[in-house]
Specification:
Elements lengths: L2 H6 L8 H9 L1 H30 L3 H30 L9 H22 L5 H41 L1
Helix pairs in contact: 2-4, 3-4, 3-6, 4-5, 5-6
């Protein structure tokens, strides 16, 4: 169903048929599919290390290195994600289908970058640094949920498109 017809029926398709084709053909789809679970695994390990530090006061450097690794993973997935978005939608960020995910992603990047800045600024305590990291991680969890929802929506659309094609 074309996007206009879908909008009139009260539903909006995530992808047009041409966008779905470009998504399926893009190497960035595979890259995102590999990086997303890797970033999530780094997040889980780092979250455990941060909480451990906050509870015990031990393991500051392990927690710090894990947050830096998480931030690097985030930067890489954001750059490759913008390349994916361009390949599929023709714009690097804020394509209508992923507008709110991109908005929240920008806030996640801002918080991770603020954490890195806190490492360099004099007078920022380790506790404050970890609080910034936890805020970044909380927003990252919201953002990850947004993307999981979109992945589910895309799978449901693909299933309904198969059914429509069989009719």
């Amino acid at each position: 169903m074309p996007r206009r017809a879908a909008q009139q029926c009260g539903t909006t398709r995530l992808y047009t048929p041409d966008q779905r084709r470009r998504r399926d053909e893009s190497m960035w789809t595979l890259v995102q599919g590999l990086l997303a679970p890797l970033q999530f695994a780094i997040f889980i390990v780092s979250l455990v290390l941060v909480v451990r530090y906050l509870q015990t006061g031990e393991g500051y450097w392990a927690a710090t290195l894990s947050i830096i690794a998480k931030t690097i993973a985030l930067y890489v997935i954001m750059v490759t994600g913008s390349l994916w978005e361009h390949a599929v939608f023709g714009r690097y960020l804020f394509a209508p289908a992923f507008f709110w995910e991109d908005v929240v992603s920008m806030a996640v990047i801002a918080l991770h970058t603020a954490y890195l800045a806190s490492l360099l600024l004099p007078g920022v305590t380790p506790h404050t640094q970890m609080a910034i990291a936890l805020a970044a991680y909380g927003l990252y969890a919201v953002n990850a949920a947004q993307y999981v929802f979109k992945l589910r929506q895309a799978r449901l659309e693909a299933g309904s498109a198969s059914v429509e094609a069989a009719r």
